[in-house]
Structure formats: C-alpha cells, structure tokens
Amino acid sequence: MLIFALGFRSFMTDPFVVVGGDAAGMSAASKARREAPDREIVVFERGEWVSYGACGLPYYVKGEIDSLDELVSVTPTEFREERNIDLRTNHEVTAIEPENQVVIVDGPDGVIEQPYGELLIATGASAIVPPIDGIDLAGVYTLHDMEHGEAIKNRLDSDDSIDRVGIVGGGYVGIEMAEAFHAHGLDVHLFEMLPHVLAPFGETVGKRVAEHLREQTVSVHLDTTVEGFKGAESVTAVQTPDSTVPVDMVLVGAGVAPNTALADSAGIEIGERGAIATDEYGRTSTADVYAAGDCAEMTHTVTGEPTHVPLALTANRAGRAVGQTVAGDPTPVGDIAGTASVKAFDLQAARTGLLDETRAAEAGFDLVSRTITTRSRAGYYPGGSPIDVTLTADRSTGRVLGASMVGEEGVPKRIDTVATALHAGMTVEELESLDLSYAPPFGPTWDPVLTAGKVLSGAIEH
Amino acid sequence: MLIFALGFRSFMTDPFVVVGGDAAGMSAASKARREAPDREIVVFERGEWVSYGACGLPYYVKGEIDSLDELVSVTPTEFREERNIDLRTNHEVTAIEPENQVVIVDGPDGVIEQPYGELLIATGASAIVPPIDGIDLAGVYTLHDMEHGEAIKNRLDSDDSIDRVGIVGGGYVGIEMAEAFHAHGLDVHLFEMLPHVLAPFGETVGKRVAEHLREQTVSVHLDTTVEGFKGAESVTAVQTPDSTVPVDMVLVGAGVAPNTALADSAGIEIGERGAIATDEYGRTSTADVYAAGDCAEMTHTVTGEPTHVPLALTANRAGRAVGQTVAGDPTPVGDIAGTASVKAFDLQAARTGLLDETRAAEAGFDLVSRTITTRSRAGYYPGGSPIDVTLTADRSTGRVLGASMVGEEGVPKRIDTVATALHAGMTVEELESLDLSYAPPFGPTWDPVLTAGKVLSGAIEH
C-alpha cells in the first residue's frame, strides 16, 4: 500500500483524506464532493456520530429536544449514499506519516495504511478535565460529545434521588446547563473561580447574568475555586475553601482543549495558542496537510494574530473552504472576530472582538470602553426591557475593537452589526453613522449600538 | 429689527433659528445648546406638539399606548427650562428672506421679523392627500401628525357604529394601521394599487406579508386602484374598478411629501427627488441656511446620489449634525441606505439598500438577486420559523447592493448586518465571510445572511 502510494503519485491522484467527522471534517468532505464530483474522498471518524450539533446538547439534556438524532444534520448513510463519501466510523487515525503521505488507521478490521493526496486534520477539541481531587468519582460529568449528553440525560431521567447539582465553571456550558438542570427541578450550585461568569463577555454582562441566575434560584458562587469533590464512589459534595456544598451530581464546564496530539506527533507545528498553526488557506506547516475547526488556530479579525476560538460557524466555514481549496479553487478560511452569543434563561448575551484591556494592549491597542443602557424597544412601546451595550475602541485611531451586550431581546443579531464593523475596520465615528433599522416594536430610534457609538466617540474626543 | 440684524452682524452673533420643532429641529437645537452653551437658539413650531414619536401613532390608535403624551420624548417646558431653548409653539414661519437674513413669523402676538445667524429648515413632510373623488368626506383620515392620531382614536373610541374600515395603500402606515384597526375588532379592507404590499421591501416580503394579513382576516385587495369614496357627508364605501366595498371609515396611507414651499419661495434649491437639496453638512444652496429631516434630500449610501427617505433616525441624526456644525464643529449629516423595518401583526419585515433592478441600473449597477429561506433558530431547537432573505449585488463587482427579509423573529436587527456591509462597500464574498454570532436559540450555524451570501456568491461566479 505504501509502495503503491509513493510509486503512483505522479500517475494518479490519491484520495482527499479527512480525520474527524464533525463540523469541519464533514463540511470539507461535502464541499470537495460538490466541487470535484470524481475525487475519492475518505473520512475517518473514531466514534459513531458524525456531523452533529454539539451546541444543542444542553437543550437535549433540558428536555426540549427529544432525541440525539435530531442534532444530526446529515446521517452517515446520507454521506455515503447521497454524497458518495467513503465515511468510515469507528476508525481512529493513530499516526500521520507525511514523508510517506499516508495515515495509519486503527479500525474494526485491523490497522491499515491509507495514502492521501491531501489530508485534513479535523480532530476537534475535548472537554478539559481539570486535575481536581475526586474528578474521577461517579456522578462527575463533562459535556462535549453526544455520549456525554446521553449519559447526563439518562442519569437525570432514571435517577429520582438527584436533587442537587454542582456546576464548575460559568462559561457557555455552565450557564446553559444551569438552565437545563433547573428545568429538571434541581437545586443548582454554580461555581466560578473568577469574579464574574461569562468572563469573555466582560463585567457588565457577567454581573447581569449572575443576577438573573440568582433570580432563577441558581446559587452562584463567584470568586470560588473548587478544591475537590467529596464522596466514596459517587460524588456527594463540592469542596471550596469556605464550604462543603452537598451535591448528587457535578457538571464540569472548564472549557475545551484542541486535540493536537496526532498532528504534534507527526511534526506538524502547534501554534502559540496551543492549537494547530495554519495559514489563510488552512494549510499546516506540512505540505498537503490542512487543519480546520476546533483543533486549529485562526487569524483574529482585529489583531491579525493567531487565535483559538473553537466555535461551530468557524469550524463549518473553515472546513468548507478547505474542501473548496482541495477541489482546485483556493479559498481562504476567513478570519474570526470571536463573535458569540448565549442564552441564559430569559437573558441573551453576546460579544465580539476585543473587550479586555490587557489583551488589546498586547496587540498594540489603547483600549477605551464605555457601557450604556438603553431599551430594546421605543420608550413608549410596551414590553421593552433594558439592553446594556459595552463598546470598545482604540483611543488613538478610533477604530472599533469590540462589543458585548446583554438583554432580554434583540441582542444576538445586534452584536452582528459590530462584528461586521470589525471586519470592515470601521472607526467609532463610522459605526455611529450607520443607517440601522428602526421601528418602535424593535428598538429606540437610536439603536443601542449607535448610542454606544455616540458616547464612546465623545469619550475619545475629549 | 431688520436694521439691527444687518447692522450688527459683524459685532454680535444672531441666533440659531430653527423652523419646525420635531425630530430634526429639536435634535439640532439640543445639540447646538450642549455644544454652545451661550448661543441664543430660537425654534418656531407652527403646532402645539414638539419632539414626538410619530412612528408610535399606529400603536396609540391600536390602544397599546395610553396617551399621546407618552410619544413625546422631551416636553416644551423641558426644552425651555432645562435646555434654555427659546421654543415658540403656535408660531408659523411664513417667509425666509435670505438677503436680509431674517425669517417672517406669524405668531399669537402678530407678525414678527426674526434675524438669524444660521437657519435650519426642518419643516418635515405631510401625508399625501391624493385627488380621489370623495377624499373630503367625513370619516376619511390620513395619519401623520398627532392630531390625526387623536382624531382616529377618538372616533374609534366614541363611535360604536364603525364595523368596517378601508385602508388605501399597503405601505408602512397601511400595514401598521391594519393591525391597529383589527385590534378594535373591525373588518379591515386594504387596497394596494401595486401587485404587492410594502413595495420597497420587494416581492418576497410583500407576498408573505399579504398572506399573513389574510390569515389575520384582513381583506387584501392587490392590483386595485381606488377610484373614489362614496357617501353623502360621511364615507360609506370605497369604489374600485371591480366593486363597491362598504366601509364606515377610511385611512389613506399614500405616503408623504416633503414640506418644501417655504424653502422654494425663498429661492432655495429643491433637488431632483423633490425635497430640499443639501450637501454633506446639510447646507442648502443658500448661505447660512441648512435643511434636515423629512423635508431634505440625503446622499444614498450605495448610489452616492441624492435620495429622499423620510425616516426618524435620519431626521434625528441630520438635525444633531447640523446643531453640532452650527456650534462650530463641522459634522457630516451622514448618508442613508434606506434601512427600514416594520411589524405586520406577527411578522417582522426589513429592508436596506437597492432591491430594484431598474433603480440599480440607473445608478450603474447590474443587479443580481437571490432569495433563500432558512430558519430563525437551529433546526432542532423548538419554536423556530422560516426567514426569507433576498440579497442583491452588482454582477460585475460583486458589491452588495441591498437586502430584504421577512420572518416571525430575528429580522429587524439582522438587516443591520447588511446595512453595515453597505456602508463598508463590502462584496458578497466579504459578507459571506463575516464571523456572525451563533447559538441554537437564535439562529442556524450559518446565519440566514451568510446563507444568502453563499447562494448569491455562487450565482455571480457561474
């Protein structure tokens, strides 16, 4: 097989091989298939599930989505039969040999060598399992893959004795899972070691979300390091410096880490953010090897520097671009502004760009920031609620650097206005001059983004 | 007074005089006051009401807003006492004499001459009263000013005999008033002479809104010219070429026309769109005379040509800019993309930029357009509904020209993404590469705007 791969490379094209069958991998395979109908495309996925919406897992656990199958956008059978993609589930790629242009694959029928013309590493990320005492106790869960979601849901549905649950980490997963557990009538304790939940969204968002969680009867423990989990076989308590909080179950939402071991072993460069280094086309340091999705670094829209923001759109887009490039139409993977949104019970929070002064300074910006509060509808129109907007800019150039917002309605798509302005490199003055939509049921005459622009613009001038 | 004005112009500053006390006028006066605390500022308003949200009138008629006073953002007393603005209601400016730098004002105490240092014409627009037979019958209303809103509301509240109402025109006012009348339990007939309602929003929006109106039991008569109104003293029927539709009341929503007579009489240039011609600072053809708001033309973001889009944000912003300019800090009034949104019962519709092929061709663009339908939430997330997005671009350059959308949620602020892209002059490829927010409750992974971008991009390439 190896000899075949090397010997005939100049006479025929080896397949486009993809490692990992989730967002980036399957987007790449599908796009390559559409653009190159005759190309052989092989995808190796070590698990059973492919092409699924992991972002929906908290809502599956909550009970709003009936079956995990609903999270699957395209089934393995559809990929194989309708898209003519050689998708092999339960196949784990254990090594890449760039010098031979093959991957080593451990599958149900043994170990095989698979030659590749181009290779895409789309190994994704894994939930971080922090080295906390008692992390291995039964009843301590993480939530990243379908199996995790299934395990938590089965436990909740089958075990009536669960009354109290601890959540470690106030990030996306922690916040979304607080809502999910609360829907099951549980007493929820959320532990965050930082002074605010949703740290990447800034202080205003964090404060309002924490307050809202408490209104919903979630116990929010800020500035609180979890020292360990107590219990004999199953977890029975969360230990903090101040107290021992009894729990029947724990969800650890400590973030994710890119799966880089496979690439690293093959001598492929890992970037300064800890994910696989890539160029604007998703190419790694090794010829004919691409990386995309949660395992790869991307270029930040504002700083122009490598960053690692493992989110769904990025994975889909970068995968799709690599598929197109491999099919002969070089396509940039795009850059990312770190735009994100999250639902926290009845609140919506969103962010984009740079919000942190230190991070901005590292990129050479003198970050100035203002927070304003206006309404989600015209003042006289019933049903409106406050929207808080934080807008940041570079003091010397006036360039918009980022924004965050929080409110009960109209938040997630409003952040996109600022995300678009970031891509365009707009100044605050330009942002302030945008002709945005207005109707009394949907916002004030001056959209909250414009009001934030006016106030920040004034702060920069004086 | 005239001699005073001329004789002392070089020794002292005559006041900043504003004609018209609504959005543009009061924004200008307020901004000038903040920036120039010692400047004398005089505002003449021919009516009683100043600085009110006319966009809220349909919701006042509907009964969702209790009092007209709620539509007033700042009261006359507040302007006078807190902002030190010499606001004179019930004063009509009947002439401008640029050669003498005075305005002639007809007020409760007789006619006066008022010298000005700078003059702002903010005379607004008026509802068009089309020359239809029977337009003067009792029971035929327009809706533009507070008095109109009050008259219609009083009539509905006091007259139990009203069962059927005719609406002439399927624009903003017609659509919003259909909802308002329907809330009063009336049998509503809406007449639109074009093939679609909300013509500036394009065919996809128009069709879906009309269908939705019909689901709400509104009778929508498309392609139907109203030939006249029948009745002895009060209107009793709407006459069309095909039928006589009995009604007890009529609302004519035939659009608005800029109030340009005052400017025209003073020899100030009227532009090709029929409103007062202005430059980027809101200056008219006459020295020291500005115009802003619904009476003035503005520059279109996409075409760079004069346009007339009488909407609230534009009026506020242009007025504010003129106030700042007059106070010594020259500030452009901004350009407008024609961004707008409207609520139609449970639907939201929005538009921005150029949607019409002919209009685009006039501006030198070869407009290509695609319409896509996706969902307002992730496919698996409960409660989502279809969103239709039409995106337009110039075929040769790929530059985004405009968009419209319609759906049950997430529409108005989603159009702002495209509006921002228009201001930045983005191509479809750039639009498609935006890092927009995603979370399952708020949209699909690929935002509908991005999906529209992908499809339109494909159409341009091939």
Textual characterization of the structure:
Two copies of one chain form a homodimer. By secondary structure, chain A is an alpha/beta fold. Chain A folds into three domains: 2-47 and 90-125 and 257-326, FAD/NAD(P)-binding domain, CATH 3.50.50; 129-254, FAD/NAD(P)-binding domain (3-Layer(bba) Sandwich); 346-461, 3-Layer(bba) Sandwich (FAD/NAD(P)-binding domain), CATH 3.50.50.60. Chain A has 13 helices and 25 strands. In chain A, the strands form seven sheets. In chain A, strands 3-2-1-7-18 form a five-stranded parallel beta sheet. In chain A, strands 9-16-10-11-12 form a five-stranded parallel beta sheet. In chain A, strands 21-22-25-24-23 form a five-stranded antiparallel beta sheet, sandwiched between helices. In chain A, 56% of the residues are buried. Residues 1-11 of chain A have low confidence and may be disordered.
The number of distinct structural domains of chain A comes to: 3
Strand content of chain A: 15-25%
The helix/strand class of chain A is: alpha/beta
**CATH homologous superfamily heading of the largest domain in chain A:** FAD/NAD(P)-binding domain
Termini distance of chain A?
Answer: 71 Å
Provide the low-confidence segments of chain A as ranges: 1-11
Tell me roughly what share of residues is in helical segments of chain A.
25-40%
Largest interface: A-B, 66 and 66 residues
Instruction: Give the averaged pLDDT of chain A, no decimals.
Output: 95
Q: Can you summarize the main beta sheet of chain A?
A: 5 strands, parallel
What is the fold named in CATH at topology level of the largest domain in chain A?
Answer: FAD/NAD(P)-binding domain
List the total number of helices of chain A: 13
EC number (chains A, B): 1.6.99.3
Pfam family, one (chains A, B): Pyr_redox_2
Protein name (chains A, B): Pyridine nucleotide-disulfide oxidoreductase NADH dehydrogenase
Domain Pyridine nucleotide-disulphide oxidoreductase dimerisation (chains A, B): 340-443
